[in-house]
Amino acid sequence: MKKHSARVAPLSACNSPVLTLTKVEGEDRPRENVVGTSDGQASTVGTSTEGASSGRRRLHCCVRVTALQVRKALWGIAMVMCVCSSWAGSTQLAKLTFKQFDAPFTLTWFATTWNCLFFPLYYVGHMCKNPERQTPKQRFRECCRFFGDDGLTAKVFFTKVAPFGLLWTLTNYLYLQALRKINTTDVSALFCCNKAFVFLLSWIVLRDRFMGVRIVAAILAIAGIVMMTYADGFHSHSVIGITLVVASASMSALYKVLFKLVLGSAKFGEAALFLSIVGGANFVFISFVPIILYFTHVEYFGSPSDIPWAYLCGVAGLLLAFNILVNFGIAITYPTLISIGIVLSVPVNALVDLYTCDIQFNTVRLIAVFIICLGFLMLLLPEDWDQCLIQLSTKLRSKREEPAEGAAEAGTNSSLNWNRRNRTSMSTFTH
Fold first, then answer.
1. CA atoms within a 13 Å half-sphere pointing along the CA-CB vector of 39
2. How confident is the model at residue 222 (pLDDT cuts 50, 70, 90)?
3. End-to-end Cα separation, the chain, in angstroms
4. Which long-range contacts (CB under 8 A, 24 or more apart) does 314-319 make?
C-alpha cells in the first residue's frame, strides 16, 4: 500500500492525513452456481459463508475506524489542553518577565534562537518511529530537497528563508511589545484576528474560494478591534498596545500566506528543518541588535546575574512547545482542535487577569472579546459547511418521517388484514 505523507506549513493551518481502508488481498471469489441439487446446496452454503465472513470483516473495519476516531479525539482533547496552556502560559510568563527584565527584543531574540532545537527533536522522534535508520546528514539532505533540486543554497537562503525569519521576529517582537502596554486578555483576544487576516489575504493573493461566512467573521474581528479600543476610552496607551498586537497579527497572517505562495507546503521534517534554519539565522545574523540596544541603554538590564534566566527560559520553552504542538500536532489529531486550543487561551488569560486584578471587565470589553472569539470560530467552518447542514437536516427530517410512514403502513396493513378476514368469514358462511 502506498504511503501518503502529511504535509504542513509552519505556523499555518493544514489538513491532516486521510485514513483510507483498502480491500484485503487474497479474498476468494464467489463460486459459480452449477446445475444439480448437491452443487446448488454447496453454492448456497458457500455464499452464506462468504456473506458471514464479509459481514464480520465489515464489522471489524467499522470497529477499527471507530477505535481510531476515539483515540484521535482523546489525543485531540489532550492537544487542546496542551496548546491552550502553553500559549497562555508563555503570555503570562512574558508579562511577568517584563517586570524584572524590560527588554522585549532581547527576549524575542532569545526565544527565536530556541528554534534551533526543532530539527534535532524531530530527528529523535523520527528515529523512534521510523524503522529506517538514517544518519542526521542523510535526513538533512533529504529534507533540503524542499528548497529545490540544488538544496539550501545562499540564493535560496536570502530569497526564501531570510524574509520569513524577519516576519517571524517582527511577529513575536510586536506581540511582546503589546504585552508591555495592555493586559494579556486583550492581547490574546486581538491576536486571534490573525485568522481573519489570513482569509482576507488568501482571498486576495492566493485566489481562495470566496465564503460569505468568513467575510462575516472578518467583519466581526474588525468590529471587535474597534470595540476593544473603545472599551478603554481611546487612551493613547491602550491605542498603542492595540495597534501593536494588530500589527503582530498582520505579520503572522502575511507569514502564512507568503509561505503558501512561495514555498507551498512542507512535510514534517522539512518544516522542522526550516524552523531550525530560522533559529540559526536569528542567532548568527541578529545577535548584534541586542548588543547595540544594550550599549545604547534602550534595553539595558545591568549585569548578567540580574537577568531572570528562569523566566526567559520558561518563555522560550513554552513558545517552543507551542510551535511544536501547532506544527506537528496534526499528525495525531484534527487541526480544528488545535485552533480551538488557541482561542481557549483567551478565557484562561481572563481568569488570571481577573485574579491578579490587572483588568476591569466592562460590558464593552466582554462583548468585544466575545465577538472576536466568535469570528475566530466561524473561520474554522469547512468550505462545505452549508451542504453539511442541509444533509444533516435532510437526514433528521427523514428519520422523523419514517416512524409516521411506518405507523401509516401498519394501519393500512391492519385494515387490509381485517377486510381479508371479513371476506374469508363471509365466504365460509356462504359455503
1. 6
2. confident
3. 74
4. 314/89, 314/93, 315/90, 315/93, 315/94, 315/97, 315/107, 315/111, 316/110, 316/111, 316/113, 316/114, 317/114, 318/86, 318/87, 318/89, 318/90, 318/93, 319/86, 319/90, 319/111, 319/114, 319/172
Q: Per DSSP, what are the bridge partners of residue 8?
A: 266
Phi and psi at residue 7, in whole multiples of 5°? -120, 140
What's the pLDDT band for 389 if we cut at 50, 70, 90? low
CA distance linking residue 265 with residue 17, whole number of Å: 13
Report the pLDDT averaged over residues 149-168: 90
Q: According to the model, what pLDDT value does residue 384 have?
A: 60
Polymer length in residues for the chain: 431
Here the cell at position 86 is 502553553
pTM of the model: 0.75
- CA 173, 176, 182, 185 dihedral sign is positive
